[in-house]
Design a protein that fits this description.
Number of helices: 21
Mean pLDDT: 75
CATH superfamily: MFS general substrate transporter like domains
Distance between the termini: 34 Å
Strand order of the largest sheet: 1-2
Shape: globular
Radius of gyration: 26 Å
Strand content: under 5%
Largest sheet: 2 strands, antiparallel
Structural class: mainly alpha
Amino acid sequence: VPPGPEHPPWHWLAQGRGSPRLVLVVVFVALLLDNMLLTVVVPIVPTFLYTTEYEGANSSVAPAQPEAAPPASKAPPFSSLFSYFDNSTVTVPGPESPTEVPNGTESSPPAQPPSSPPATPRGCPEGDEFLTKENVRVGLLFASKAVVQLLVNPSVGVLTNRIGYHIPMFLGFTIMFLSTVMFAFSGTYTLLFIARALQGVGSSFSSVAGLGMLASVYMDDFERGNAMGIALGGLALGLLIGAPFGSIMYEFVGKSSPFLVLAFLALLDGALQLCILQPSRISPESTKATPMCTLLRDPYILVAAGALCFSNMGVAMLEPTLPIWMMQTMCSPQWQLGMAFLPASISYLIGTNLFGVLANKMGRWLCSMIGMAVVGVSLLCVPLATNIYGLIGPNAGLGFAIGMVDSSMMPIMGYLVDLRHTSAYGTVYAIADVAFCMGFAIGPSTGGAIVRAVGFPWLMVIIGVTNLAYAPLCWALRSPPATEEKMAILSQECPMQTKSYTRQKSLQEFPLMDNSNVEDKNVE
């Protein structure tokens, strides 16, 4: 009798470790936090750099201007002066009078132009040349995460095939926590750049190990599609919360506050992984993985990876350039810079969950082809907006369409490996993540340079037309052929129908459990 009360909690935990649903929860939370950190910096970095570098430099020069050059050197561009002491506006009829008004009332208005943009929400920020150059710097900072992730992904894919998914997943949490804390206390561009690059290493471990783990747990093609849709819902929720959360917390609390909140949530995610995944155990894949070079020569995998790359490249180009374009053309306050991405995040959340189920019924190739076409049209409509409300439609369409593509292509990657190669998923999801990262590396790094050369509207035209031109290639995924070795394993139904695949070895080697009851399910 005494052992009875002691066993239930541990017995429940042991059973929970074997539950695919709890594995899905772990992956969901990991993708949620990773993408919250990905987007929380989007509205913060442009305004933080503008405040610390441009305004900081001008404020140090401004005190010398009233005594050194009291004549009307900065008066001609202004037809009126606004007093921040008594909230009154004084009309200036001629170029000589601005010096008389400050001398007769107060001595601070000559130093007003450098400090007026942040104090007056309706006024556009000064320093157009600085903002134009900042497009490139912010784009490079945002792209650093994707570039590092791009370089690390192949190694992580090989590592997961050798030691399993648990340890890489926990390493991803640890690195992401360090990156978040570094973001909170970084005050220069260089430190922010290092923190962003460090996040790329953590993201590589979390995303490759997480998606590979899901594919190994859900062997049925239909269930795998649903699980991928739910996991991508965590990614979408992170995108949904990140930018608005960052802009509001930065505006009303301070720069460090959103990152400290994310660091606390990351600790909770680490505790969840310790309980469920047992990251100290080495659990290699039960089948020998297909080499990455072989997968990269598969044209169908390349088409799927290209769809992931180009569809996400559009929103990747928007991240560094849209806030600065809004500051220049709409004179938007800080909180609007993050809220502009809210429609895209909400619609992406809806799209991934909706088409995780529908894509399997209507055909994932068709779903992705329609999605890429809608991505192109939405991007072409972005420059037509004259205020933040005009961005709602294009951004909502963009997020919904990318949700269609992602929720279709992620299951297709696992399906293609089952159909044409060996059923080990770490390498193929490393390729999928590489494609995703290429979009987020090429997009921000080239987007800022293109905006500086030809302007923001032409940038949207270029990437929009690119998506429209790539969309027809998704037709190739309608009925991919199986290799000769796989023909004996698969049924003779239409290849894109729902199937359950058997791996070369027994599921008794399932990596998440010590002594599980999977044998019973296997017998069935």
